[in-house]
Structure formats: C-alpha cells, structure tokens
Specification:
The chain is an alpha+beta fold. The chain has three helices and ten strands; from the N terminus they run ββββββαβββαβα. Strands 3, 4, 5, 6, 7, 8, 9 and 10 form an eight-stranded mixed sheet that branches. A two-stranded antiparallel ribbon has the order 1-2. The longest helix has 13 residues.
C-alpha cells in the first residue's frame, strides 16, 4: 500500500478516493455499460471517478457526473448515502468510495465520452443490470438496506500472514 510521511516522521496509508453519483428518477437509477476499458470492461456502472487533488468529494462527484453525462448537478444538493473502504480487484489499491445520491439535475443527459461507455440508461432499482463491479453491487445492497458504511475485499488475517 502506498504511504505518506507526516511532519512527525510517521508513515500513514495513502488511499485513492472514488466518488459515485446515484442519480435517481423515481425508482430508477442511471447507469451505463463500460466499453472495453482496462478496469471493469463491459460492466454496468454509475457516474463515478477519482477525486482530484484539493477537491472536496461533493465537487468531485458533480464534476465526474458532468464529464460523463454532459448534464450538471449542484454539489450542495448531493446526499451522502454510503461510504465504503475497499480494495480494488485491479492492482490491490486501497480506496475510499463516497456514494452520493441526487434526484435533480440540469441539462440533457448525453454521452460525451462514447469511447468509455455505451450511453446512459435508466434501470429499475428492483432489477439492476449485470454484470457490475462487485464492490458496486455490494454498495448498492448496503444503500438499499440503509447501511451507512461497509468494507469490501480486504484480505483476511490468514491471507495477510
């Protein structure tokens, strides 16, 4: 795991921070199928991406949503619905994933990144498409259950030894 060194000389774990936006329209969720990307190829995903340096999580989620759909959301209207501490199945990077929900946006939802995804489709929450990234499927179940925090894909004590 990458580490950072504090002024005290102590080292601390360094994590990537992911942001995810669950855009809802009634009982439907906006998702897109990823094209042949290096990470989660062919899987269904919500608007998501990495936070950039010096960027608060809500601003990052709104930025990613705009980049991926062409529409906008107001970061102050986003509601945190879940926080997940997980390990990526691609390379083992430790990640903190913020999941925000919104039910209003401005503009038309399009596909400004056609090389990355097939386009955005509304799916009934009761019958979401497969396949989707395993961590996302687990997070969506926790969100449905009202669980605010989860951990995913951490090695067991035996695996760490």
């Amino acid at each position: 795991m990458p580490e950072k060194t504090a002024e005290s000389g102590r080292t601390y774990a360094s994590h990537y921070a992911d942001v995810h936006l669950l855009l809802r329209q009634g009982d439907e969720l906006l998702m897109s199928r990823r094209r042949e990307q290096p990470v989660f190829p062919g899987m269904w995903q919500v608007p998501a991406g990495l936070m950039e340096d010096h960027e608060p999580a809500t601003v990052a989620a709104a930025r990613e949503f705009a980049e991926e759909t062409g529409a906008t959301v107001d970061p102050t209207h986003l509601q945190l619905v879940h926080l997940m501490h997980h390990v990526s199945i691609y390379g083992g990077a430790c990640r903190i994933a913020f999941f925000f929900a919104a039910d209003r946006w401005t503009g038309s939802i399009g596909n400004p990144e056609p090389e990355k995804c097939t386009g955005w489709v509304w799916h009934k929450s009761s019958s979401l498409p497969n396949p989707m990234p395993p961590y996302l499927a687990v997070a969506l179940q926790h969100i449905s259950d009202g669980t605010p925090y989860s951990e995913f894909a951490w090695p067991t004590a035996a695996e760490r030894s």
